[in-house]
Design a protein that fits this description.
Length: 211
């Protein structure tokens, strides 16, 4: 697997004149992990969105590289898996259909896509519910399906924003297991204010330090 690296240099983000964070810098590469902490509304999710290329920073630069080769911003999504509260799935599709649809947006030419989806649904304990419409899923089941979507394409960068939302203990254990696997092969970044989650990563970045 290639050496993936994220380099954030002097990032700042403002909304309507309000500073969310400013002059934020860090570098992280394969097999390293980072916890982003801060109170509710402090900007953790905003930073995750910037890293995922869902929004732009107001100032500063962020680059993603593979074996020292810069990856174009419009290709970041191929390297990145995201679990977040703001990820919207389709209630009128089944669990399987949601994963099939979103995977095809990220990749082309997958000969064994059904097997890949079945395997990840087994992994998150949703295989038996794969043909049920998403609107009939509980909030915990929807969170597990979002996790399945995040890891379906085996991303080199895994971003988890408040990952334990709506999960029971078994679901949280699943998050931790997948997180520990990710740390062995790629980059893991978790945005959380849960004390237990902080222990998952090698280093901590407090968004409160960049106000």
């Amino acid at each position: 697997m290639s050496l993936i690296e994220i380099n954030c240099d002097g990032l700042s983000k403002t909304y309507s004149g309000r500073t969310i964070f400013k002059n934020l810098s860090f570098k992280i590469s394969s097999t390293q992990s980072l916890t982003v902490t801060g109170s509710n509304g402090s900007g953790k999710s905003t930073l995750i969105k910037v890293i995922a290329n869902l929004i732009n920073s107001s100032r500063g630069t962020i680059t993603v590289s593979s074996d020292s080769t810069i990856i174009p911003r419009d290709k970041w999504f191929q390297k990145t898996g995201l679990l977040s509260p703001y990820l919207n799935l389709y209630d009128e599709l089944t669990g399987f259909e949601n994963l099939d649809f979103f995977y095809r947006l990220k990749s082309t030419g997958e000969d064994n896509l059904k097997d890949r989806i079945d395997n990840v649904l087994h992994r998150v304990n949703l295989y038996e519910k794969r043909n049920e419409l998403l609107k009939n899923y509980s909030s915990g089941m929807k969170q597990k399906l979002k996790l399945a979507f995040a890891v379906l394409h085996e991303p080199e960068i895994l971003l988890l924003d408040e990952p334990r939302s709506n999960l029971d203990k078994a679901g949280v254990d699943m998050i931790y297991e997948i997180s520990n696997e990710q740390k062995k092969k790629g980059i893991l970044i978790i945005a959380t204010n849960d004390e237990d989650d902080k222990e998952l990563c090698d280093s901590i970045l407090s968004i409160e330090d960049y106000k």
